[in-house]
Write a structure and sequence with these properties.
Blueprint lengths: L1 H17 L15 H18 L6 H15 L1 E2 L10 E5 L7 E6 L7 E7 L10 H6 L1 E2 L5 E2 L2 H10 L2 E8 L5 E6 L1 E4 L8 E5 L2 E2 L13 E2 L13 H5 L3 E2 L6 E2 L18 E2 H4 L7 E8 L3
Parallel strand pairs: 1-2
Antiparallel strand pairs: 2-3, 3-4, 4-6, 4-16, 5-6, 7-8, 7-16, 8-11, 9-10, 12-13, 14-15
Helix pairs in contact: 1-2, 2-3
Length: 286
């Protein structure tokens, strides 16, 4: 009974202290008791581990406690996470700790997912303010927010990895050793993008030094067209560029007009929408 009551109290406190994290832009409140909750859960988990045989039903409770402990423990960044890939409370880039999806197994781990497209269910035709603040769910389709990208990449050198899947089963990976986003006053300019390697070409080469453009804040260099409106998604744009992973999710059928969907032209051309993309950053590892 003591165990059940303790677990319920820990769960309740977690809900009351953090609130919903389904949208990154939602307001949150801090919780002074998080450290105590984490310590209590860790102690309960250890107690179960020490006192129950492998076949005891409490092993399932132990697994649940470990999951709860993962959700309430505060990390400075995904670079500090040593557990399995998943949601973790992270301080980096935030006034109040927020849940990020930390990728700990891919490419040596330590990665923060900053963008994910998988099925087109989340609308990426968003305003400048929405791209600034972030939207979506960290485990699903998602954009972390330009303010966070500026804060994180301005603190130290960060590398960027991009994973892409096509509808024909092909995959591509590109990486950059130095990725930095400027402040809002400079329209979140892609100020640095260096050290390219990849299994396909560099379709962001023309984006370096360009500001972030959206349908309601046109900052691209095209004289006669709003390229973010054409792409139906915000991106760092030089004219209409050669890539936009936030572009319209068009599915397997190529678009009649090039550069109007979610494309990386060096991978599948300017008319074929991709099936999946994931963008990740971490502190640079020489």
């Amino acid at each position: 009974m003591t165990l059940i009551v303790s677990l319920l109290l820990a769960t309740l406190c977690t809900q009351l202290c953090e609130g919903s994290f389904s949208l990154l832009s939602e307001p949150r409140q801090t919780c002074a008791g998080y450290a105590g909750i984490a310590d209590a859960i860790a102690a309960l988990t250890q107690s179960i581990s020490n006192q129950t045989p492998a076949t005891d039903p409490l092993i399932g409770v132990q697994t649940n406690l470990q999951e709860l402990l993962r959700l309430v423990t505060l990390h400075e960044s995904c670079n500090d996470v040593t557990g399995p890939s998943g949601l973790y409370r992270v301080r980096e880039g935030n006034d109040v700790p927020t849940f990020y999806f930390c990728e700990t197994e891919l490419l040596g781990g330590g990665w923060t997912v900053i963008q994910r497209r998988t099925n087109g269910q989340t609308n990426f035709t968003r305003s400048f303010n929405e791209y600034r603040d972030g939207f979506g769910h960290p485990e699903q389709e998602f954009w972390i927010g330009l303010t966070r990208l500026n804060r994180i990449t301005s603190s130290s050198q960060h590398e960027l990895a991009i994973l892409m899947d096509a509808f024909d089963g092909a995959t591509a990976t590109v990486r950059y050793t130095n990725f930095k986003i400027a402040a809002e006053a400079d329209n979140f300019r892609l100020s640095t993008l260096l050290g390219f390697t990849g299994t396909t070409g560099n379709s962001m080469s023309t984006n370096v030094g360009k500001t972030f453009s959206t349908f309601d804040r046109d900052t691209d260099s095209a004289a006669t067209v709003n390229c973010a409106s054409v792409w139906k998604g915000g991106w760092w744009l030089d004219g209409c560029g050669d890539s936009n992973l936030n572009g319209f999710y068009n599915g397997a059928t190529p678009t009649a007009t090039p550069k109007t969907s979610m494309v990386w032209t060096d991978f599948k051309g300017a008319s074929q929408s991709l099936k999946r993309s994931v963008m990740l950053i971490r502190k640079y590892r020489p």
